[in-house]
Amino acid sequence: MAEKGKAVEKEKKIQKSSFYEVDNDKVKRKNLFCPKCGAGVFMAAHKDRNTCGKCGFTQWKNK
C-alpha cells in the first residue's frame, strides 16, 4: 500500500485590509459608511453606485 502524504502547514500571509489606507501615521477609510446602518458598516463601491450589503441601501454616483 502507498502511504498518504503528511499534511503540510502552509505559511499564512498577512492580509492587507482593502478598507483602510495608512498615510503618515493617519488612517484613511477608502469606502463610505452606510448612513442607515451607521458607523462600522462599509458600503461596497461599484462602478456606478455604492451599496450596503447589510440593509441594501444604494447611493448612485453622479456622472
UniProtKB/TrEMBL annotation:
Pfam families for this protein: Ribosomal_S27
Cellular compartments per GO CC: ribonucleoprotein complex; ribosome
GO biological process, one term: translation
Family: Belongs to the eukaryotic ribosomal protein eS31 family.
Cofactor note (record): Binds 1 zinc ion per subunit.
Domain Small ribosomal subunit protein eS31: 16-58
Keyword Metal-binding: yes
InterPro entries, per database record: DNA-dir_RNA_pol-M_15_CS (IPR019761), Ribosomal_eS31 (IPR002906), Ribosomal_eS31_arc (IPR022845), Ribosomal_eS31_euk-type_sf (IPR038582), Ribosomal_zn-bd (IPR011332)
Binding site for Zn(2+): 34, 37, 52, 55
Organism of derivation: Candidatus Iainarchaeum sp
PROSITE patterns from the UniProt entry: RNA_POL_M_15KD (PS01030)
Subunit structure: Part of the 30S ribosomal subunit.
HAMAP family: Ribosomal_eS31
Cofactor: Zn(2+)
SUPFAM superfamilies associated with the record: Zn-binding ribosomal proteins
Keywords associated with the record: Metal-binding, Ribonucleoprotein, Ribosomal protein, Transcription, Zinc, Zinc-finger
Domain of life: Archaea
Single GO term (MF): structural constituent of ribosome
Protein name: Small ribosomal subunit protein eS31
